[in-house]
Amino acid sequence: MDNHFADIILPLAVKGTFTYAIPEPAAGSVFEGSRVLIQFGNKKLYSGIVSRIHNIPPTGRQVRTIERILDPYPVVTSLQLKFWSWIADYYMCSHGEVMKAALPSSLCLEGVATIPVPEKYKPRTETFVRLASDFTASHLNEILDKLSKAPKQYDLLVDYLRLSGYVEGLSPNPVLKSLLIRESHSSVAACEALIKKNILTAVSLETGRLTDCLTTPEPVKTLSNDQNDALGSIRKCFADKDIALLFGVTSSGKTEIYIHLIEEQLKKGKQVLYLLPEISLTTQIIQRLNRHFGSVTGVYHSRFNNQEKVEIWNRVAGRGNGKNYSLIIGARSALFLPFTNLGLIIVDEEQDGSYKQHDPSPRYNARDSAAVLAALHGAKTILGSASPSIESYYNAITGKYGLVELKQRYGSIRLPDIILANTREAYRKKLMVSHFTPQLLEAMDEALGRDEQIILFQNRRGFSPYIECPECGWVPSCVQCAVSLTYHKSEGRMVCHYCGFSTAIPHHCENCNSTGLLSRGFGTEKIEDEIRIVFPSARVARMDQDTTKGKNSFDRLIRALEEKQTDILIGTQMISKGLDIENLTVVGILNADNMLNFPDFRAHERSFHMMEQVSGRAGRRQKIGKVVIQTSDPDNKIIRLVVNHDYKNLFRIQVEERKAFNYPPFSRMIKISLKHKDRSLLNEFAEILGRDLKNIFGKRVLGPEYPLVSRIQLWYIKNIIIKLEKEKSSAASRQLIREAVERLEGQKGASSLKIAIDVDPY
Question: Is the per-residue pLDDT at 617 higher than 70?
Fold first, then answer.
């Protein structure tokens, strides 16, 4: 018989797949994409995914047999397996690492030692009741007559018939037992009595954990002339290109265009994936899309628990018991869902750095991967942004992507007025109130006087970046990382934002024993404290990683803003995108210099994106918005470009610089990070790899060098960066890098060295 063997992907960071024999009784029930249980290593059991079925026995070792088939159907599609292979190859990681990122962890069994193996996912069931027999109407009338002396039981049965939609000759629907008791104002005892009399029977049915949208869908809105023109241009782009860039200023109505494109695809019976960079953005978008598309809309991101993720997975795959999803809104991990008929992928805010996964592997970019996934399905991709990434805009103007522009805000609403507030001058003239310039305080005061709302943007959480001894300059630092600890006043702790280590606030300097320690700088927590002092009657809230740990915390904060229960919202980059609040008129950017002076070739581009995005939150309806940018350098060329909303000149300046220094989009970059707990051994191994790579790639290799933060969680770090010309074969270069890394791993003592490869690390 053919096909005795299966190649299996395991959720481990190990190279390649592993061949197992298919047991004879299971020969017809194992498919590519099936989830199987296998023994790997010393008596440990894992669930793996079958990637190939064949008849070629492995040489040189005894073949183990698959222990069990875990599902009656493949949980991963053939297109997903192709997508996994592309991710593993392009981003230089193992198939197992991709599998671990892709599958909900409840579908991944790892290192289990017991048989029978406990499945992590269990369908949620609840108790329902239904009629014990196919009673006729006359028979039911007799039963009701007999129950006249037991009024609770009588009422409960009457309510059951009502709730179940009983019609003679048709099977009535089961009714949730708890709902029936609540609706009939009865008791568990009355229900149990009817069950004992064989009038009702109790059944356990699968109900699921997800909340369905039950509203009647609204028709899509009529587009403005500008939006209609843009929609027509996108359709023309899609006639000969697979990717279109929608470049529209903030509040130009991009989302409404997406809604029309989604409706077109759903009418064709296709699925649509709508990617967003931040979980916090999903709340308002979900509400808008639910209004139009109702229960076919699903959401997928990290805040769902593992059981819920499996149920979303099944609904996308078409196994949702009639409750399947055609439209998925999600963060980057939604790329890995089992789409069966994808027609369109929308990547909103495509320039956002959150689309890039940095740790752990696979270190993929969801924007770039989305284009590959769409191509596998024969689908189209639309990238949307008010200030596109340099790479995407370059691809658009050079003809690789289609380009569609929306230059006016919807309804011809004016872009906000931008005021530059010089903090250096204000400090010199002693005009600063805490961290606020007179211009910002005046704008806030006027807005509050008109019952309007304000957001203050500070891209650093915590109370202050660090505590310092003014006598000797000592700063408390992390015991595991080469960074200072951040002071969190509400927790009363010093916290490392890299490894999570925390310690009590020191009462004296550990160097000179001075007790006069001072906090330096400011984060969102400190701004919140001081705003409450400056505006004591204002209702203030804060949105950052510390205040949004709970599953529904984003929703609560945004709902309070929408319902005008919050006057001033202070936050990090979470508040810079997507918020569409009618009454929000003032935006304060508290420290523009902090973003601009970061040592990264994308610092200026990212600063422009961030300031342009957060500015776009102001004045999105009929009220004119005002943005106050606090800076010590108001003549900075990037800040001047933000004032004029001048993306085209930003692009021109950035492209000239990148061409001169051979940065993307004129090259591809690959970063290799080496980590070791022994600094001298790290230096030795890094030099070996650096020399080897320079022999292959010459001057294209930079480093090895220590990064800005040179130690994290006791591991010292050194980086090597390789810049490759766009026209060179990317696959061939990646293979040469793999071989150089394998040679290093073969060196004596290298087993304790960690190596991470990051393709397109920006």
Answer: yes
